[in-house]
């Protein structure tokens, strides 16, 4: 899920008491990781942890309960995986995630769309998580957001994989696709992994390749649907290998919108780590994956 790509507006982080231990994590049937957050004294609310969303966002089911936000909101462009649209942006007076309090956090008020089917209240974006070491432990059903990884967090992990942050502070990592290097966006808000046709061809797959099947339609916040194909690839992130990973193929509009439209590109979704604990150390640019 990539509900926004815009310049981040820093929010004031208060030195509130921050839990040193992990908090409970919900994993939806779709694989999306969901954390509990609060808006002031209201909540808890269920937000998908999305490393590729530049801004934290509220879905209509929650935004409609807060008319004061809509009253003071301004129109804003929004680039999603399925294309560009327009939405509103408003400031959350007090937003709390993993014991950290953010004041006047700019947040998108998303329009109604396919994301509503997840049944959650919002999206926890890079404006919150990208300053910290983010641990998502899907098998253990817990998550952490700390200044730096603890020795316990890094115990039992493979050698770290380096990454950089793009203009919207989404992690970009090199993934080996059938042995070929492909630049990828690490997107914990995407339920599936996608490559464009340039990446598929680089890895030896064309529309005429035997065994290729329909991957259904890719839909996002903009409601635009993009047909996809599906097949398996050997996917490797550092020393972490998935020899027969199911990957969907489509030239999604987001690839062009984020400057990846002229060559091979990938969205590395949360499905790649469904059975793994990962630590995304944003300040140090290192991805740690459990063995």
Automatic annotation (TrEMBL):
One Pfam family from the record: Asp_protease_2
Annotated signal peptide: 1-22
Key words of the record: Signal
Entries under InterPro entries matching the protein: Peptidase_aspartic_dom_sf (IPR021109), Retropepsin-like_bacterial (IPR034122)
Domain of life of the native organism: Bacteria
Entry protein name: Peptidase A2 domain-containing protein
């Amino acid at each position: 899920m990539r509900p926004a790509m815009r310049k981040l507006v820093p929010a004031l982080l208060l030195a509130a008491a921050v839990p040193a231990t992990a908090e409970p994590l919900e994993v939806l049937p779709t694989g999306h990781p969901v954390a509990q957050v609060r808006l002031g004294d209201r909540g808890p609310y269920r937000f998908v942890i999305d490393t590729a969303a530049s801004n934290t966002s509220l879905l209509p089911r929650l935004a409609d309960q807060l008319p004061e936000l809509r009253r003071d909101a301004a129109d804003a462009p929004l680039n999603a995986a399925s294309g560009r649209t327009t939405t509103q942006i408003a400031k959350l007076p007090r937003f709390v995630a993993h014991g950290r309090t953010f004041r006047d956090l700019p947040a998108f008020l998303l329009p109604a769309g396919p994301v509503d089917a997840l049944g959650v209240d919002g999206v926890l974006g890079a404006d919150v998580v990208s300053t910290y070491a983010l641990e998502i432990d899907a098998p253990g059903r817990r998550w952490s957001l700390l200044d730096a990884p603890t020795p316990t967090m890094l115990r039992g992990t493979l050698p770290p994989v380096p990454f950089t942050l793009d203009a919207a502070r989404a992690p970009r990592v090199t993934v080996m696709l059938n042995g070929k290097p492909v630049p990828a966006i690490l997107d914990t808000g995407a339920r599936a992994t996608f490559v464009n046709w340039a990446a598929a061809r680089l890895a030896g797959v064309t529309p005429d390749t035997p065994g290729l099947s329909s991957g259904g339609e890719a839909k996002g916040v903009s409601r635009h649907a993009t047909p996809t194909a599906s097949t398996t690839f050997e996917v490797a992130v550092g020393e972490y290998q998935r020899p027969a990973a199911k990957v969907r193929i489509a030239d999604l509009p987001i690839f062009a919108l984020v400057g990846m439209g002229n060559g091979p590109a990938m969205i590395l979704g949360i499905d790649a780590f469904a059975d793994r604990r990962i630590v995304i150390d944003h300040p140090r640019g290192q991805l740690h994956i459990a063995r």
